[in-house]
Task: structure prediction
Amino acid sequence: MTKFYELSPEKRRALLSQEGIELDEIEPTVLHELDQLSENVIGQLRLPVGVVQNLLVNNKSYLVPMVTEEPSVVAAANHGANLFAQNHGVKAHSQRDGIYGQIVLQENSGFVQANLQRELPNLIAKANTKFHSLVAHGGGVRQIDVQETTGQLVFLRVLVDPAESMGANRVNSILEFMAGELSSFPGISCKLFAILSNYPSQFTEAKVELDVATVGGVATAKRIALLSQIGEVDPYRAVTNNKGIMNGVDGVLLATGNDVRAIEAACGVWANNKGHYQSLSKWTVENDKLLGKIALPLAIGTVGGSISARKDVQQNFRLLGKHISSAELANVIAAIGLANNLAALLAIATKGIQAGHMKLQARNIVANLEATAEEKEQVKERMSAANKYSVSDAKCFLAKIREENNASRN
Ligand code: MEV
Result:
């Protein structure tokens, strides 16, 4: 019998329908495009693409696509970006010297570390010859360190520059090649594993210097700095602060076809860099300026993998500027993280987060009402005026509006 994964997506859908599962319509061309990206594909999940209109980074204005289902995220990023633009924007810098890989080998009694050490430059040269196309694109194996030998295992840490790509597949191929070369080296019995590490690398730093008047004055700026201090010592606050940063970061990662899981994992480790979990950003007040900075491990790419193949992603690159480099995109991502962070801190330090959130939430709630566009607009206005945002509030307002309209007609 043909296995589920061997079937065409239409046949998989037919099977599910036979089992009584109702499936949404999908364009055949879309279904086939998606079938190329994953396994057992039967449909799609749609998310909106929103735009941040003027993110000023290193004196260049960007249109930034963000993908998210959370209503306030794009609004928050726009708000933060607007505050930055009033203060000469963000200064950012990306260091793209490579991503890590690990090769772990089983040693035997004949193992001599100094001999292996002497072999490593040769091994780098061999790998760079074999993977010459990566070298031609400006990347390649940069460094290998013998990290540890346990008497049984040898740990090698390899640094590979993936050029403009994320590099996961390429790095894994390189590591397996190198592990193969080493498996017959004197004193080595076999390879235990060879795979990239998502440990933080490819760091981007972004910073802003804002006139305190931009956030409503020195008192508010000091509250923002205090919130930031709390995030240095209190993990309950730090993780929420970082969630706000990742709202922005993940939005741009998704829009540009980058691996959200890899960056989330690396940022989680990085937040523990000082031995306990902390905020990834820092805000201070100095000489009537609110200073904000962030450093994030952003092993992202602008080419390779599914990035070039996906039309939806390519549209987003057209917004960013078709020829954007990976370093430039990483600068934009860190700047957006900082923008989302500032917008959240500013709201928390002043009127609280719920006022803005609920206004946007109202839009989602009224969208699901069975009502005319005009009625929906009126319901939204009443929800916001009364500061009442539940589904039942919306239904009550709708009933009241209809009652009033009927009364005025009679
Ligand atoms: C909500 O998605 C994100 C915030 O909770 C972030 C924060 O508290 O800093 C608003």
User: Anything to note?
Assistant: Residues 357-409 form one domain.
